[in-house]
Specification:
Radius of gyration: 21 Å
Largest sheet: 5 strands, parallel
Number of helices: 10
Order of helices and strands: HEHEHEEHEHEEHEHEHEHHE
Number of strands: 11
Structural class: alpha/beta
Helix content: 25-40%
Shape: elongated
Low-confidence stretches: 232-240
Mean pLDDT: 82
Length: 250
């Protein structure tokens, strides 16, 4: 049995043997049917293996194992490292603690890691869910027009006012592509009564198009290339977040 993710083999009660290597072709023929064994062919590698980080960040299910590691474990560690570089904001004594919320569902485990590490570093905060995600609305970043992308965001996410009102909100997302979804979500958080909004991104900046898993039209549309670390313009466009942190490239 060949499967895309290990969770599929578990549901069929199949035993995990190994990953298919990059550039490898598994051959299933009459001999395979008769003996239960298979052969493979491998393309020569000139530059080594380049793994797709978006398998860990977004594509794979948390209960899968990718490149030898469980996805949920990697995502939590991404959140912990994010907290080390961009911890939760400090508050004065007597103020409501900051609330750390994920953009569901792919950022949930990174948010758990971020919350755990922030508390460990002496930055008290609470973890909660600030958005209800409509499961019947698809991915917003691949919609063909900005109007459709904005509409999908409004239909997809509904803020929970009782969690957000009068609090400093740290919202953790798995990645930032064009930045348009993030801007819409920040607006929704302020409209729900958030005192401040701080955006944290658990993956390094997306700087180049990828036509395999995530179909980006052009390099110029990507947020990281537009602002190159300077987010002042983003704050001016439709009330952006108070602070934005993401993994460094080092």
């Amino acid at each position: 049995m060949l499967v895309r993710e290990t969770l599929t083999s578990r549901s069929c009660k199949a035993e995990y043997v190994r990953d298919v290597e990059p550039g490898e072709m598994i051959i299933i023929d009459k001999k395979t049917v008769q003996t239960g064994t298979f052969s493979s062919l491998k393309l020569p590698q000139k530059f080594g293996t380049s793994q797709c980080i978006f398998e860990y960040v977004y594509f794979a299910r948390p209960d899968s194992r990718v490149f030898g590691e469980f996805v949920t474990k990697v995502r939590r560690e991404l959140g912990r490292q994010l907290a080390r570089e961009w911890p939760a904001p400090k508050v004065e004594e007597g103020e409501l603690l900051p609330v750390i919320i994920p953009i569901p569902e792919s950022a949930t485990h990174a948010t758990l890691g971020y919350h755990e590490e922030s508390v460990k570093m002496g930055r008290p905060c609470i973890f909660d869910f600030g958005f209800f995600r409509n499961p019947y609305v698809g991915r917003s970043f691949i919609s063909p027009s900005q109007e459709l992308r904005d509409l999908k965001v409004l239909c997809k996410f509904n803020p929970m006012e009782h969690t957000l009102k009068d609090r400093i909100v740290v919202v953790v997302d798995d990645s930032i592509v064009r930045g348009t979804t993030a801007r819409q979500l920040v607006k929704l958080l302020y409209a729900a009564g958030a005192k401040q909004v701080h955006v944290r991104i658990s993956s390094p900046p997306v700087t180049d198009p990828c036509f395999y898993g995530m179909d980006f039209p052009s390099k110029e549309e990507l947020f990281a290339n537009k602002y190159q670390g300077e987010h002042g313009e983003m704050r001016e466009r439709g009330r952006g977040g108070q602070g934005r942190g993401r993994w460094s490239l080092s």
